[in-house]
Design brief:
The chain is about 5% helix and about 40% strand. The chain is mainly beta. It folds into three domains: about 290 residues, Tachylectin-2, Chain A, CATH 2.115.10.20; about 80 residues, Immunoglobulin-like, CATH 2.60.40; about 280 residues, Glycosyl hydrolase domain, family 43 (Tachylectin-2, Chain A), CATH 2.115.10. Strand 45 and strand 46 form a beta hairpin. The chain is globular, with a radius of gyration of 30 Å.
Length: about 725
């Protein structure tokens, strides 16, 4: 009997321990950071200087909460009625949160003297106090700016400190710090200077993060010749910061408001900053907090933030935020992981309860599992492979008490033809290899700053193989290393051997490189082939070459120009220009760039792009001629291709044309904004473009029929 009691006690103890372990595991799971909270404001207009929230499951794709409306009224937490630059921090013991903001309403001017300190137990309800520097500290009674406060825990002092920039008459903005009282309602010490700029220039928007026992202070410098975001490093939180050389921002545009956060379950960090004159945010990634790579192509936001910060949060905190601050168009589905999906082109519309998944050619739609990504603590059903060959399949998404049904379409989409960001596509058919080769601009670089070219091969214009880099300006070209744009290519048989001549734009000049193989690598000639504009041409740029071999005369012509269209005849060596001045053929005022010349049925076709590549209205027009040197005849309706807003296909331009071998069959190869993110990117869509191919048809009298851009693209060509 005693043994039985003992066993019973042991059983009860085992169950109790199991329950404790399960509870501890569940609590740990609930407390793990699985998502992100972005706090930000939106601008200088009415109602924009207020704290807003957005959430993300991966640190890259953010969605606003509360329909992008403020989560707390600015006039309840400030004196001016406006707050900016919100910085949020989790308390060291994980029992609440602190936030600090600039107390400033810019319609009254850019001078201010106060900041607001806020605290919350749950991210939902905030109490606040206003600290006016001029009233609190006589030493700073003359301060005219108190900007961009942030807070951090000082483990050595066991206190929270706030750091911010201040401006006094006759000086420049300097970054100061002060400790906060235990209630987080007031500064308990007089501000001391934290960072001493070695150049004695304005320093604002400080942001500190600790890594490997060192403190990294990111800050913005002001001035005409040395402005941007820099980093200073110290072994101490409150002193000894030494500035590193150069900027850490990856743009030449104006920037401010840097914010650094560590990615969940990763050793990498994100540095983001406000490109405030460009109307966009830039995200960069780094492993060492010194070297940063732009990752804008991976970022999406359905709002336009200004100077904010990101805080990793738990699933439980995320659920709390979703319940308190719902948004009408927030979707619980955040992506899909099946490798057949073209992930850049997924379209999720909560308002319509639809998901569009474009997949690669050859994907079996009858047995396909999207492998959906969802917000933490979200369930989706069904969770196995489904038959999409007959249309949409219904999925039920459960998040807490909310249940939503989505119609999911999986469709083969041959456009874009290659995944990733590429533009200005040139295409040839190689007689040597019996393959098609695509030669695009490598896109996705801020301000068209790419420096290398790649090529792709295909037997059928649908299935493409990445053949790698064929010319790298930084390694292979002596005369420049910037702006690798808009190449053109020709295969020539010379003395019984095939040679390849690759004309490319670099530093707004036209160069030429050669190879014995269509997939390179290519050797540069050593100097630009086109560096001067034609006589009488003052504007525009020497870019966007197009090589054309006249099938009637065998002569070789090189066309180029932005703002003007020029042509020269090349010698038989293909790398030098015949004597004589360039001829200007500019068709009309619609000509912008991207000329393409091809021949069909005794007619020469000249195609060009109109408008700006950053505009959704970028399009292609054409003219015809009886000679490769003109004159050009412009048909009454001469649009070749333009945007289709019903399909969200925008900025269809800068094309080439390919004829199927021995057939009267032509295809238009062009670029478009990345879809669906392009329109939301604004001007940055102009260097986040994708290559597409659609059929090019003609009327009986040789006019080009307007091409309708498609998502499905073309079928494989024999």
């Amino acid at each position: 009997m005693k043994i039985l009691k003992s066993n019973s006690k042991f059983l009860i103890l085992s169950i109790f321990c199991s329950l404790l372990f399960a509870c501890a595991t569940e609590n740990k799971k609930n407390n793990e950071n699985t998502a992100y909270l972005f706090t930000y404001f939106t601008g200088n207009g009415a109602g924009e200087e207020a704290i807003r929230y957005a959430i993300s499951s991966d640190g890259y794709n953010f969605h606003s909460l509360n329909n992008n409306e403020p989560i707390v009224a600015s006039d309840s937490i400030s004196r001016t009625g406006g707050v900016r630059d919100p910085h949020i921090l989790r308390k060291e013991n994980n029992d609440g949160f602190y936030m600090v903001v600039t107390d400033l309403l810019t319609k009254n001017g850019w001078s201010n003297t106060a900041m607001s300190l806020l605290k919350s137990d749950d991210l939902l309800n905030w109490s606040s106090s206003v600290i006016d520097i001029t009233e609190t500290f006589p030493e700073f009674s003359d301060v005219t700016r108190v900007w961009a406060p942030q807070t951090i825990y000082d483990a050595q002092a066991k206190k929270y400190m706030v750091y911010f920039s201040m401006l006094q008459p006759g000086s420049y903005d300097k970054i100061y710090y002060a400790y906060v009282n235990d209630d987080f309602t007031a500064l308990e010490s007089t501000p001391k200077q934290l960072f001493f700029n070695p150049n004695e220039k304005a320093s604002i928007d400080g942001d500190i993060i600790k890594k490997d026992d060192k403190f990294y202070l990111f800050y913005k410098t002001e001035g005409d010749t040395d402005k941007g975001i820099k980093v200073a490093i110290s072994d101490s939180l409150t002193s000894g910061y030494k500035a590193e050389q150069g900027n850490v921002d990856q743009t030449d545009k104006a920037v401010e408001g840097s914010g650094v956060f560590k990615l969940n379950n990763s050793q990498d960090y994100i540095l983001m900053y406000d490109m405030y004159t460009s109307g966009k945010y830039q995200f960069t990634r780094s492993a060492d907090l010194k070297n940063f790579e732009v990752v804008d192509e991976d970022i999406s936001m359905n709002f336009h933030p200004r100077h904010g910060t990101v805080l990793p949060i738990s699933s439980e905190e995320l659920q709390r935020l979703l319940k308190e601050f719902p948004s009408e168009d927030l979707t619980e589905i955040t992506g899909a992981e099946n490798e057949a999906i073209k992930s850049n082109n997924i379209v999720i519309k909560r308002s319509e309860k639809t998901v569009y998944l474009p997949v690669k050619y050859g994907t079996d739609l009858s047995n396909f599992d999207p492998k959906f990504d969802v917000l933490p603590r979200t369930e989706i059903s069904p969770n196995t492979a489904q038959d999409f060959s007959n249309g949409a399949v219904a999925y039920e998404v459960t998040n807490g008490e909310n249940k939503t049904s989505y119609q999911v379409n999986v469709e083969v989409a041959n456009n874009p033809v290659v995944e990733g960001y590429y533009a200005d596509p040139e295409i040839i058919y190689s007689e040597k290899d019996s393959k098609y080769y695509l030669y695009p601009t490598s896109d996705g670089f801020d301000g068209w700053s790419g420096t290398y070219f790649k090529t792709f091969s295909s037997p059928d214009l649908v299935n493409w193989t990445d053949e790698g880099v064929i010319l790298d300006l930084e390694k292979d070209v002596e005369w420049t290393s910037r702006n690798a744009w808009a190449p053109t290519m020709v295969e020539k048989e010379i003395d019984g051997k095939f040679k390849y001549f690759y004309y490319f734009t670099a530093a707004q000049q036209v160069g030429v490189a050669t190879s014995d193989n269509p997939k390179g690598t290519f050797k540069d000639s050593g100097a630009p082939l086109i560096s001067e504009k034609p006589e009488g041409i003052n504007g525009g740029q020497n870019i966007d070459p197009d090589i054309f071999v006249d099938p009637k005369s065998g002569k070789n012509y090189l066309y180029w120009g932005n703002g003007f269209l020029a042509v020269v005849e090349l010698n038989d060596d293909m790398v030098s220009i015949k004597d004589g001045a360039p001829k200007v053929l500019t068709p009309d005022e619609t000509f912008r760039e991207g000329v393409e010349v091809f021949f069909r049925n005794d007619t020469y076709y000249f195609l060009w792009s109109e408008d700006d590549t950053r505009s959704p209205n970028y399009k292609v027009r054409y003219a015809t001629a009886k000679s490769p040197l003109g004159p050009l005849n412009i048909p009454e309706n001469n649009i070749v291709i333009q945007k289709d807003e019903n399909q969200d296909i925008l900025a269809t331009g800068h094309n080439s044309v390919i004829k199927v071998h021995d057939k009267d069959e032509f295809y238009l190869v062009y670029h478009r904004f990345t879809r669906p993110k392009g329109e939301a990117m604004g001007g940055a869509a102009g260097f986040h473009r994708e290559v597409a191919i659609d059929r090019l048809n003609f009327t009986e009298d040789g006019l080009i029929e307007e091409v309708k851009p498609t998502l499905e693209g073309i079928k494989p060509v024999n």
